[in-house]
Amino acid sequence: MNEFPLLTLVIWLPIIGGVVVLASGDKSANLSKWIGLTFAVLTFLVSLGLWIGFDSTTAQMQFVERSAWIPTFNVEYFLGVDGISMPLIILTTFITIFVIVAGWEVITYKPSQYMAAFLIMNGIMVGVFSALDAILFYVFWEAMLIPMFIIIGVWGGPNRVYATIKFFLYTFFGSVFMLVALIYLYFQSGSFSILDFQGLQLGMTAQILIFIAFLLAFAVKVPMFPVHTWLPDAHVEAPTGGSVILAAIMLKIGGYGFLRFSMPITPDASASLAWLIIALSLIAILYIGFVALVQQDMKKLIAYSSIAHMGFVTLGFFIVFTIIQNPALSSGSVMGIEGGMVQMISHGFISGALFLCVGVLYDRVHSREIADYGGVVNTMPWFGAFMVFFAMSNAGLPGTSGFVGEFMVILATFRADFWWAVLAATTLILAAAFTLWMVKRVVFGEVKNDKVAVLQDLNARETFNLGALAAAVLALGLWPAPLMNVMHATVENLVTQVSVCKLPAAESADCVLARPAPIAELNGRPVAATH
Amino acid sequence: MENVYLTIVLAPLLGAIVAGFLGGKIGRRASHSVTIAGVGISTGLSLWVLSRFIWHDQPVFNDTVYTWMVSDGIRFEVGFLVDKLTVLMMATVSFVSLMVHIYTIGYMADDEHNWPHGALTGKNSYQRFFSYISLFTFSMLMLVMSNNFMQLFFGWEAVGLVSYLLIGFWSTRESAIFANMKAFLVNRVGDFGFILGIAAVGMYFNSMDYAEVFARAPELADTQVALFGGVSLMTLICVLLFIGAMGKSAQVPLHVWLPDSMEGPTPISALIHAATMVTAGVFMVARMSPLYELSEAALSFVLIIGATTAFFMGLIGLVQNDIKRVVAYSTLSQLGYMVTALGASAYAAGIFHLMTHAFFKALLFLAAGSVIIALHHKQDIRDMGGLRKYMPITWVTALLGSLALIGFPGFSGFFSKDAIIEAVGASQLFGAGYASILLTVGVLITALYSFRMYFLVFHGKERMDEHTKHHVHETPWVVTIPLILLAIPSVFIGWYTVEPLLVNDWFTTGDWSPIVVAHEHDTLHHLREHWHGQAAFVQHGLAALPFFLAMTGLVLAAVIWWGVFALKPRIDEQLQAWGGPVTRILQDKYGFDDFNQRVFAGGSRNLGRALWMTGDRAVIDGAIINGSAQWVARMAQSARHLQTGFLYHYAIAMIIGLVGLLTLFVTL
Question: Which among A208, A293, A446, B581 could bridge B608 via Cys, Cβ 3.0 to 4.6 Å?
Answer without folding.
Answer: A293
